[in-house]
Amino acid sequence: MRASPLQKLIIAILGWGAALLMFFPVAWMVLTSFKTEINAIHSPPLLIFHPTLANYGHVIHLGDYIGALTNSVVISVGATILGLIIGIPAAYAMAFFPNRWTKDLMLWMLSTKMMPAVGVLMPIYLLCQRSGLLDTQTGLILVMMLSNLPIIVWMLYTFFKEIPGDIIEASRMDGAGPLAQLRVVLLPLAGPGIASTALLSIILSWNEAFWSINLTATNAAPLTAFIATFSAPEGLFWAKLSAASTLAVAPILIFGWATQRQLVRGLTFGAVK
Amino acid sequence: MCTLELKNLRKAYGNIEVIKGIDLTINDREFVVFVGPSGCGKSTLLRMIAGLEEITGGDLLIDGVRVNDVPPDKRGLAMVFQSYALYPHMTVADNMAFALRLAGVPKAERDARVQVAAKTLQLDALLDRKPANLSGGQRQRVAIGRAIVRQPKAFLFDEPLSNLDAALRVQTRIEIAKLHNDLQSTMIYVTHDQIEAMTLADRIVVFNAGHIEQVGTPLELYHNPANLFVAGFIGSPKMNLIGAEVESSNGQSSTLRLEGGSPFTVPTALGQGEKVTVGIRPEHIAVTDQGTISGRVEVIEHLGNETIAYASIGGAEPLTVKLPSASTVQLGETLHFAPRGHAALFNQAGQAIALPRG
Description:
Chain A: It comes from Acidocella aminolytica 101 = DSM 11237. Chain A: Residues 69-259 form the ABC transmembrane type-1 domain. The structure holds 2 protein chains of 2 kinds. Chain A has helices spanning 5-33, 37-40, 54-62, 65-96, 102-111, 121-130, 137-162, 165-173, 178-189, 191-207, 210-215, 223-228, 238-258, 260-267, and strands at 231-232, 235-236. By secondary structure, chain A is mainly α. A two-stranded antiparallel ribbon of chain A has the order 1-2. The two termini of chain B are 41 Å apart. Chain B has a 6-stranded mixed sheet, sandwiched between helices. A 6-stranded antiparallel sheet of chain B has the order 13-12-11-14-20-21. In chain B, β1 and β2 form a beta hairpin. The chains are: A mainly alpha, B alpha+beta. Chain A binds chain B through residues 164, 166-167, 169-176, 180, 184-185, 188-189, and chain B through 50-52, 71-73, 77-79, 81-89, 98-99, 102-103, 146, 150.
C-alpha cells in the first residue's frame, strides 16, 4: 500500500514529535550545563543566557573524570567480552541442539530480568564483600556481565536461529566439529548480529547506575557513579550535575552515533527478511 | 566400493515411531531412489544414513562395518541438500574445498581436486563468485561439486531438484544421471517426484508411513505393483483403481461387476462374492465397440502429444483414459472401453493377486 501525501505528513509529524520528545531532556541537560547555577534554577527557564564553561572546569577539577571514564570503558567492554564468551556457546547450543528444557531455560533466564535489581542487592553485596570484589573493576564486570547475559543470549539465539540448519549440517557432513562450526560457519554468518549484541551490551553496561553506585566507592567508580557524586548532601547543583552528565553520556552518544548503522541493522535483522 | 546394509532400522521420537524397521541392501554403484509422499520417512531415513539423525534401533552397515555411532564426516558419505546449504560467505572454490581444508589436505591437492570437479560441472568460470551471485541451477551444481570433491563412498541426495524451475529440473536430472555414469559410485536419492524416480533409478524404494511398500526396478514397479499404494503412486496419470465384486468364477476365469455396473473378466479363479480392486493404467485402455466398460466422456484434456479423457462409468471415480493426440472423442459421447492386456487385480487387503500374463 502506498501512503498518501497527507498520511506521509502525519507520519512525519508523529516521528519528529517522538524524536524531539526523547531528545528534549538531553538537549536541556546540555543547555543547562553551560549555565551558571543561578541561571540554572531560574524560573521561567532561560533560553538566552551567557554560556559558561565554569561547570566543566569545576567538574573535571573536582572529580576524577578521567578515572571514571577509564573505569566505564574497562567495565562495559570487559563485561561485554566476557558476556559474549559465555553467551555465544550458550546460544549456539540452544539454537542448534535444543532439547525439551531449552524453552524453559530461556524463559527462566529472561525472568531474572523481570525482578528489580534491588531485590538481590543484599546477597550480591555480601558476595562481593566476602570475595573482596567490592569497589573493584572485576567485581563490577562480573555483575554487569551477569545482568546483561540473558539479553545477550536471547539476541544471539535469535541471530543464530536465522542461519539455516542445513548449512550447519552441511558443515558437519564436511567434517566440522563444534568449534570449527562456530569459527568457520557461525561467527562469519552471524557477524552483524554479534556486533549489534556487543554494542547493545556496551551501551547497557555504560548506562547502568544501580550496581555501579552500590558496589563501588572511589577505585572502580564508573561515570554513572561519578554523576551521582554531584547530587551531594550539600544540595543539588543543577548546572554542575548537568555538566557531569553531559561528560558521562558524551562518549557513549558519539559511540552510538558512529555505530548506528550497525546497531539498527542488527536490531531489525530478521524483521525485514 | 560401497555397499550399504540397513537391518531392521528404526527411528522414534519419544513414543512416535517414524521409521518402522527398514531392511534394505544398497549395492555398490547402484542408483537407489527413495520415493513416497511427504511425511513417509524417506528423508529421515536418508538423514539417519548420513549420520544427521540418531538411529533408535537396528543396524546400519557401510561395507560391512556397523556405523550407527560413527559421526557423519567419518562415514565417508557426501550429502546434497534441497536448499543447497552452501556457505554464503565463501567463494565457490572455498565452498568446494571446505571439507578438504578441514581434513588438512595440502593446498595444491585441494586446488587440483576442485579444478577437476569444476570442469566436470562446468563451474570453472564461477570459482571466484559467492553463492549469492549464482543462479539456482549453478548453486545446485556447486552443492554437487562440493560432494564430488570429497570423493565419497556414496552420494546422498535429499530432494535436490525441488527448488529448481521445471526446465532446469529436467536438465539437472539428466546431469545427475550422467554424473552417476561417469563416477560409477553408489547414490541414494530422495524425492517425492515419481518421474525423477522412474528416470534416475536402478531400483526404486517406495515408502509409506515409515515402512517400505515395494522395492524394484522402475519397470517392475510399473508393471507389477505389489499393492494398491504402489499402483496408485507410480505412473502418471494415475492408474485407474476400480472397486469390483466377483459375480461368478469357473476355475480359470472370473467375471466381475465393476463399481458402476460394467462387467469385467479376469483370467483367474476367485471366490464368488469376493471384493477386489481392478487396476488399469490409462495408457492400457482401448476405445472399442467390443469393450465391456461403457462410460460417458465428461472432461477432455488436450496435451498436444496425447489426449486425456475422463469418463464417468457410474462409480465414484471417473475412468482416466489416455488417447492419441489425434483422437476425435467428443464431450458427452458414450464410449466402450476394454483393457489392453495389462489389468492388475488387488484383494481386499490391497495386495496384488498374481495373474497369468496375457
